[in-house]
Write a structure and sequence with these properties.
By secondary structure, the chain is α+β, with helices and mostly antiparallel strands. The protein has 16 helices and 19 strands. Strands 12, 13, 14, 15, 16, 17, 18 and 19 form an eight-stranded antiparallel sheet that branches. Strand 5 and strand 6 form a beta hairpin. The protein is globular. The protein starts with 14 loop residues before the first helix and ends in a 14-residue tail after the last helix. The structure holds flavin-adenine dinucleotide (FAD), D-malate and zinc ion.
């Protein structure tokens, strides 16, 4: 096929034509207007550039284009829904990095209700995977605010967590097998759906959490679970951070299999959601400084979740831990409560500039994390508004900071690394992690040395060099330069 389009300066001569010959014109995007949404990240932290975005329709096409790019020494950035919170899926500013978008590879290849597995291509949207499982009477439990855009490849590449980690684990725990294209174009065919398979190094896990630096995930075999037959959602206003933890323990001690999600939200965060999101409303009478969202679910049709919820909330009310609570009486009310939680990222964006610290600590230390970080952040930037929220049940709090009202957003964002360092100091003291579920991407590479330096980072570099000796796979992400 003749190469008639204008040649981006940064691609070697003839390469665009060769890529188009493999993918067809639908698979190669070079128009700057069409490229624009894919060269920046969801948070708008980075504005990159690319000569082209490639959209293979299947694994063979992807393998062929990776071979061509590798031979020409062209760096590649795998991309799914581009919802990364750490700039992982966007190319850098050099204009040399080609985007490999998986969005056309969106087939559910297989769903087996006896094995309780689903094999989905990397470009399947998370919500579509959940829907496919539900249509077969099963559950794919991974759930997060970006599930309408994030892809199976993306959630595995970042080892995403989200709301149900407390019960079902992170994306890694939901993966049984993987298919990936290696940086030289070879296909790694590991789509086994076995619960037991001890056959040497568990290479499939290398691609999970690697954020596209070791190869491109093309499909995965995922675990399914029995669907929920009864569920119950409540919002509780609680007296303090400690009371939130006590409430979690009450539910866990009573029936840990029932807790599908246990989320914490601050009064400041809820105020911002109520201000910024149309139709959001508080189901309890009084505003509070702390709230918990409790989501119980069971596959047993006779499980008395409403009774469980009432009994635990009543005991916590008597103990002075819960101040007020509302139990959803319909699916619409349950969704309205979840909306208060899920709109936190969007509401914060609308409120002004904010800096995210996606951190984790042992669950027992969550109250101390929230208190100490909030105090330290207020002292660092007077007038700034700490907005801690998130997955309390698994120890992952988004220790986000909203700019002071009236402050220049750019001046606030310029303090981003000071702000993250301030939170990280507390996190280190509490034996936590500086990145819980969003990954490292481009944003946190500078933190790797001090948190993972020595043997751990050295091993990571050796693995990277073994699989990607030219350093072409998502350069500038995860590993510090
Ligand atoms: P992208 O953003 O496209 O890519 C993310 C990283 O994975 C990049 O490094 C990219 O190179 C790599 N990658 C993408 N696809 C592949 C592939 N097929 N093979 C190899 N590498 C690949 N995250 C959570 O964990 N929990 C949450 O609760 C959560 N909530 C969010 C809420 C909102 C509103 C938003 C915008 C984001 C949220 N995120 C959350 C972050 C984000 O959704 C996740 O990181 C998600 O896993 C990214 O999926 P994606 O398809 O958009 O990947
Ligand atoms: C969420 O759980 O909503 C996101 O991971 C958090 C964020 O936006 O910081
Ligand atoms: Zn989260």
């Amino acid at each position: 096929m003749p190469d008639t389009s204008p040649l981006p300066v940064s691609l070697p001569p003839g390469l665009l034509g060769a890529l188009t010959a493999v993918l067809g014109p639908k698979g190669v995007i070079t128009d700057p207007a069409d490229l624009a949404p894919w060269t920046t990240d969801w948070r708008g932290l980075y504005q990159g550039a690319t000569p082209c975005l490639l959209r293979p329709a299947n694994t063979n096409e992807l393998s062929a284009v990776v071979r061509l790019l590798a031979r020409a020494g062209v760096p590649m950035v795998p991309q799914g829904g581009n919802t990364s919170m750490v700039g992982g899926g966007a190319p850098d500013e050099s204009g040399r990095q080609v985007i490999l978008s998986l969005t056309r590879m969106n087939r559910i290849r297989d769903l087996d209700p006896i094995d309780m597995t689903m094999t989905a291509e990397a470009g399947v949207i998370l919500k579509s995977a959940q829907d496919a499982a539900a249509a077969a009477g099963a559950l794919f439990p991974l759930s997060l605010g970006a599930e309408g855009s994030a892809t199976i490849g993306g959630v595995l590449a970042t080892n995403a967590g989200g709301n149900t980690t407390v019960r079902y684990g992170n994306a890694r725990e939901l993966m049984l097998g993987i298919e990936a294209v290696l940086p030289d174009g070879q296909v790694f065919s590991g789509l086994r759906r076995l619960r037991k398979d001890n056959t040497g190094y568990a290479l499939k896990h290398l691609f999970v959490g690697a954020e596209g630096t070791l190869g491109i995930i093309t499909a995965a075999t995922l675990r399914l679970f029995p669907r929920a037959r009864v569920q119950c959602v409540a919002l509780a206003a609680v007296a303090s951070e400690d009371a939130a933890l006590s409430l979690f323990r009450r539910f866990r001690d009573r029936d840990d299999t029932a807790v599908r999600a246990f989320e914490y939200m601050s009064g400041t965060g809820i105020d911002i959601v109520l201000r910024q999101i149309d139709g959001a409303s508080l189901p309890v009478a009084e505003r509070a400084d702390h709230y918990c969202l409790i989501d119980l679910a069971s596959s047993r049709p006779d499980a008395d979740l409403q009774g469980l919820l009432e009994a635990v909330l009543e005991a916590a009310l008597e103990a002075g831990e819960v101040v007020d609570a509302a139990i959803a009486q319909s699916e619409a009310q349950a969704q309205a409560i979840w909306r208060l939680r899920e709109e936190h990222p969007e509401a914060q964006k609308r409120e002004g500039a904010s800096v995210k610290s996606d951190v984790s600590v042992p669950v027992s230390k969550v109250p101390e994390l929230i208190r100490r970080s909030s105090d330290a952040l207020r002292a660092l930037i007077p007038g700034s508004r700490p907005v801690p929220f998130g997955h309390m049940g698994d120890g992952n709090i988004h220790m986000n900071l909203e700019q002071p009202e009236g402050m220049d957003p750019a001046a606030f964002l310029a303090r981003g690394h000071d702000i993250m360092d301030t939170v990280n100091e507390v996190v280190r003291d509490l034996e936590g992690s500086f990145s819980a579920e969003h990954g490292i991407g481009r944003l946190k590479t500078d933190m790797m040395d001090s948190w993972r330096g020595g043997a751990e980072l050295d091993a990571m570099r050796r693995i990277k060099a073994a699989l990607d000796p030219q350093g072409l796979m998502n350069p500038g992400k995860v590993l510090p330069g």
